[in-house]
Every structure is written in C-alpha cells, then in structure tokens.
Design goal:
Elements: H1 3-31, E1 39-44, E2 47-52, H2 55-66, H3 69-73, E3 77-85, E4 91-101, H4 111-126, E5 140-147, H5 157-160, E6 163-164, E7 175-183, E8 187-195, E9 214-215
Antiparallel strand pairs: 1-2, 3-4, 3-5, 4-8, 5-9, 6-9, 7-8
Helix pairs in contact: 1-2, 1-4
Main location: nucleus
Protein name: HORMA domain superfamily
Subcellular location: Nucleus
Length: about 220
C-alpha cells in the first residue's frame, strides 16, 4: 500500500466512525432508553438525526466510535454491537454492524459516494421502530467491538482503552432481523438485529476467552 492509499484508507475510516457515532446515538434514541428531551434534532448527510444533549452520554458515544478508528484502519474490526441488557445482565437485543474495509480500493471511491451509501442506513434506522423490542425494567446498554485479533497489551495507547468483556452469550443461535446492507468497494457493511430465540435456556454461557470481544 502506498502513502496515497494509506491516506484514502484513513479517510474511509474517519467517515465510518463518524457515521457510527451518529448511528449509535440514533439507536439509543430509537430504543427510548432516555427521555426524548435528552436528544436534539440535527442534520447529518442531509438526514434528520439525533444528538445527545447530555455531555457524558455524548462523550461516551463519541469516544466509543472514535476509539475504533485505529483498529478499523488496520482491518481488525469485524463487528460493532450496541447491546441492551436485562437487570440480570443478560443480552436482550443486539444491533450489529458487520463491516469489512478493503484498503486497496479506498482510493477508487469518492467521499460523497461513500456518504451517500451510509446515508441510506440512517434513513432506514429512522423508520425501524417496529423492529425493536420493548426494553425491560432496570436495563442497561453498552458498545462492544468484536475484533478479528486482539491488540497486544501495551502495544498502543488505543489498545489500553479497551478491555475484554464478560458479556454472557446465548446458547442457541439468535433470531436475526436484517435492517440494511451495503456490498461495495471499499466498504461492505451489514446492519442487523439479534434477539434470543424462543427456545433460549436461561443458563447462558460466557464467551470463550480466546475469542472474547473487546468493550470500552
């Protein structure tokens, strides 16, 4: 990869994490986790979106999204999940962004083309209320990144910001609801929902330590 390709790959990565910040905020708003007054309407990519008013909430979403940038540039990020948990710390719903970036073709796409493609995801999210489940009492949520390989401890400051999660996993395959997909160059992106199957037992398992996701 030459310097120009590297710069273009960096631009694609920045566009993706900027989009991710907006999309995560829209998901939290869509779920009704906070009062609607906790958000304000803004425009992004010529789409009406939501922006968190509370500084701590806004900073958490921003740092979670932009903390992924060095790993996205290296092609390490496989999935980003917004996970909602019950009071017992059991996942009840997961919004999954599955992504692949091809650095070698990053220079072949105009930024406007990529933004136009990502814009369709935001439009779809804004009308996806019917797809989500009601939240249980005393629930919580977090952003989790699933990496293709784990960064070495002490190898970078960015890696030290992420810790292995002990999130419980469903024993049975989840029910998957597709929301939107993009299959193009340099970015392939899928957005889908995961819910536990009706036959899911209550005794969940913890993830294999060798393949644990990383969570901020």
């Amino acid at each position: 990869m030459n310097l120009k390709d590297d710069n273009q790959s960096g631009e694609v990565g920045r566009t993706v994490v900027e989009f991710m910040e907006v999309a995560i905020t829209m998901i939290v708003f869509l779920k009704g986790f906070y009062p609607s007054a906790a958000f304000e309407r803004r425009r992004y990519m010529n789409v009406v979106v939501q922006r968190a008013r509370h500084p701590e909430l806004r900073d958490y979403i921003h740092s979670a999204a932009y903390g992924l940038l060095p790993f996205i540039r290296k092609g390490l990020v496989e999935r980003v999940a917004v996970i909602f948990f019950s009071e017992d710390n059991v996942p009840v719903e997961r919004f999954i962004f599955k992504l692949t970036i091809n650095p070698s073709s990053a220079a072949l796409v105009e930024e406007g083309q990529l933004e136009f493609a990502l814009r369709s995801f935001l439009i779809k999210l804004s009308v996806s209320k019917s797809l989500v489940k009601p939240l249980p009492q005393n629930c919580r949520w977090e952003v989790t990144a699933y990496l293709r390989s784990l960064p070495q401890v002490g190898s970078s400051k960015e890696g030290e910001l992420w810790i292995p999660t002990d999130t419980k996993q469903w024993q049975n395959p989840p029910v998957i609801t597709p929301v939107k997909s993009l299959n193009s160059e340099p970015l392939c992106l899928q957005l889908y929902l995961e819910h536990p199957s009706l036959s899911q037992p209550h005794n969940l398992v913890k993830p294999n330590a060798a393949h644990e996701p990383q969570v901020r």
